[in-house]
Amino acid sequence: MSQAAAVAHGHEHHEELGFVRTYLFSTDHKMIGRQFLFMGLSFLLIGGGLALMVRYHLAWPDDPIPMTSWIPGSQEGYMGPEFYNASFTMHATIMIFFVVMPILVGGFGNFLIPLMIGTRDMAFPLLNMLSFWVAAVAGVLMVSGFFVEGGHAAAGWTSYAPLSSVPEYTGVYLGQDLWCISILVLGISSLMGSINYITTIINMRAPGMTLFRMPLTIWALFVVAILLLLALPVLTAALGLLLFDRMAGTTFFNPAGGGEPLLWQHLFWFFGHPEVYILILPAMGIASDVLSVFARKPVFGYRAMAYSMISIAGLSWIVWGHHMFQSGMNPALGTSFMISTMVIAVPSAIKTFNWLGTLWGGNIRFTVPMLNALAFVSMFVIGGLSGIYMAATPVDIFIHDTYFIVAHIHYVVFGGSMFGIFAAIVFWFPKMFGRMMNETIGKIHFWITFAAFNVTFFPMHILGIGGHMRRIENPNVYPFLEPLHHWNVLITFGALVLGFAQLLFLANFVYSLFAGPKAAQNPWEANTLEWSAPTPPPHGNFPVQPTVYRGPYEYSSPEVKEDFLPQDRKLGPGLAAAH
Amino acid sequence: MHRWLPENVSTFGSKVDEIFYLIYYITGITFVGVMVALIAFLVLYRHQEGRRATYTHGNTTLEIAWTIAPAVILVLLGFISKARWDEIKGTPPPADVNVRVTAMQFNWEVLYPGPDNQFDTPDDYQVLNDLHVPENKVVHIHLRAKDVIHSFFLPNLRLKQDALPGKEIIVWFQATKAGEYPIPCAELCGFGHSGMQGRLFVDDPTAYDQWKKEKWPQA
Question: Which residues, numbered 37 to 96 in chain B, qualify as contacts with chain A under a Cβ-Cβ cut-off of 8 Å?
């Protein structure tokens, strides 16, 4: 029980820390979590802005984009192919590496893990602080790429060699180098974070918190940390080789010097597919928790939920070739990767059915986090089902590299991860900042976002089925795409509404931060340990080391009169209320 | 739905489309089923004062059922796909016509072997972006790339294959209907990627003979 003693001492010291140690170089996991959250939200503005410019250009390729002439790379508001390619490359890069990962893994991972497993902080607080500041350096490097000569990286977020490895093919020099270095640095940050998460979850759980009493959010983050630990070094190695090719004259990926372009794709997707699950698994965990809280029901098939996440993680290592069916890889390998890809769809199906089972027989409260979690479930169903088209190798021949893929990834990463992020922010805002977010604005934001999201991304399936390639700057130069042009215009209108609706969320976030009503300790009447800590939790989190007596989802239990039963509430023989 | 896919003019294209529609119906039914259940649950089990949610942690039989059902469907889909994939991308049937297509920033360089059917001989004919092939014949495309990766995409023939620098990949097709069809590049290949497109001319026998006569008058 040395840990409990440490907790008792730890929380008394926080008053002494000055501004710098409290807000900048903090070793408190909660502050680091908030820092990651703010970093991700700031980058969301850049990534979203880039998406809107790309969409505007696709609908009206010959017109200047309003209010953008000040942006480096823009020619008086007109978007040439150089600027266009850099924009979609950086949109994806920023959204994946600097928005979804920092918010879900960096932000909520840091904030929630110690609180939800009932401990005072991460296992290595200093390493944790370093992890944020290294990520911040990566962010600065990435943004600086916009201001260098030749423009930012423009070879797609996948950076296929030799387009990315031989500067002469694009004319992009420093931009692509900075892109590589930034992600290399970010990889170091992720490694530090993941080691910390794994150690903390294995070693520092509160007494009674067995692995199968952990909330599914923690299970998801645990699995994600393991994926990060094993996947990131592969990307780091690949980026190292790419940098050597660009700067030191090697030819790892350039056949002109005996290299192999497919090597890049194998390395990249060996990282890249687990990466997709790194983006979606935390949202799956969060949605499971939120659904259970607001359906006032235990998660249906808790163990199956945990095991399905573990099997997704395991299988994610043997499916990377499905990104490469048409790449020139041996077609026989294509078949093996197709079968493994079909198999990995099964755990996702299990999760979907279990979410439905959780809602069945519930007493459902339609709060803002619940609405966003429900959107997550329904949009993830579309994103998951559309994946089957690509998994089937013959169909993939046609839809590979079309807008069908763009639709699929956005249904998973926006429809899935982003709605998960909205749910998580509104749900844990009271614990993070001690105030409630405005519910009316939250609901307006949700409905506009949900509608505009579908207007934006659903028609992309239709474009893809029509043969519309992705990553083309001007669809109007292709006569066979002309009949599809009106979809591009509709999508752009949807995207503009979707983009500007996020300002509502931002306004709600900032307003509530300073003027929202003060939050109770457990405003949602939830069971997990973070709600047993004071609001907002002090340095050291728990005044008294909590002890865990049961699983995280004992809602509407017959043992008590209320419809929730916190994990750390001790029920004596006489305490259980008659029911 | 049927009008969204471009017209198919290859022998194997309809087999691709069949799987597409099979998946369309499977996923469509699944989607509608899940959504109906979801919305029904949201209405039936909406919050009511004084009511208590059903206290249950799951149902093993149900969970086993909904694990096995998708697994069986998906693996079956895999085996149906395998046969057709092998037909399209596996060992091609013997060629009637050979053409070499070399992708480069930002054109398709088309090389016809001429009457001797040998590449790199004096009777070769090279042209940018115009690919002439006869109707109802097996065509082998010897696909190469000069600089970066490109992707040879024939939407109407349901064929796509990346062209890799340093490697020759042979893909085949048999076009069933005369006409002109687009050959866009489907893999980001640089700043001229958008607009990189050629034309596929599927010629009926007389038109093809006439085109050959024009190019090789003495043959």
Answer: 37-38, 41-42, 45-48, 51-59, 62-63, 66-67, 70-71, 74-75, 77-78, 81-82, 84-86, 88-90
